[in-house]
Amino acid sequence: MKPKVSLVRSGTTVDQMVRAIADHIVTGELRPGEKLDEVTLAEKFNVSRTPIREALAQLGVMGLADRRPNRGAIVAVVTQEHLSSMFESMAELEGICARFSAERMTLGERKALESEHIASAQFVRDGAEEDYESYNTGFHTRLYEGAHSKHILEMVILTRSRLAPFRRAQFRLRGRLAKSWEEHDAIVTAIMRADGNVAGEAARAHVTLVSNASAVFASTKGL
């Protein structure tokens, strides 16, 4: 029996497969219209077809795969208009979260956000994309949770899951790590000052720049 394929550092098997397949789609290794064959994928990941079906279902919800009755799944065509619309919604949601975080975060939450942000500068200096990407996910989660609004948290997590592979892609662009850190710095500074308006504007601007960077990356891959 072959060992399980380890794709990322954490997460369930299905999560790992979703991430791996999504990244292949976003980077252009899997092209629009290409068949996502359950048997082939099951052999590749050394799993049964059941988790493959679940992974493909999740990719369908993310808009990266089209499920066709009795014909299997194919890589979906992701239009720039659809991607821009999702990022536009994400920018507004993150702006709300940052504003609320500036107004509602506890002192402990603020200190933890600032401490982790400062420490993440080392990832930028080292050019450690994977480490920074993992930190980046945690950074934004702190903003969502710091807003102390359960309903907004549910909406923003759902939207983020659909944009996750495109947000990861931005870090493949030269110089993006440093720019991302600087954008985070503006958000953190405003939150530490309890300035909700500035924090919200900084977060919206940050996601807009992420959207632009992701669009640039996608255009080079013919998406």
What does this structure look like?
- The protein has 223 residues and is mainly α.
- It has 9 helices and 3 strands; from the N terminus they run αβααββαααααα.
- It has a 3-stranded antiparallel beta sheet with strand order 1-3-2.
- A hairpin with a 3-residue loop joins strand 2 and strand 3.
- The chain starts with 12 loop residues before the first helix and ends with a helix.
Provide a short characterization of the protein structure.
By secondary structure, the chain is mostly helical.
Please compute the radius of gyration using only Cα atoms: 18 Å
In sequence order, what are the helices and strands, one letter per element? HEHHEEHHHHHH
CATH architecture of the largest domain: Up-down Bundle
Distance between the termini: 38 Å
Could you say how many structural domains there are in total? 2
CATH class of the largest domain: Mainly Alpha
Strand order of the largest sheet: 1-3-2
According to CATH, the homologous superfamily of the largest domain is: GntR ligand-binding domain-like
Secondary-structure-derived class = mainly alpha
Number of strands: 3
Oligomer: single chain
Total count of helical runs of at least 4 residues = 9
- The proportion of strand residues reads under 5%
Considering DSSP H and I runs of 4 or more, what fraction of the residues is helical?
over 70%
Instruction: Describe the global form.
Output: elongated
Would you tell me which CATH topology of the largest domain applies?
Answer: Four Helix Bundle (Hemerythrin (Met), subunit A)
Low confidence ranges: 1-12
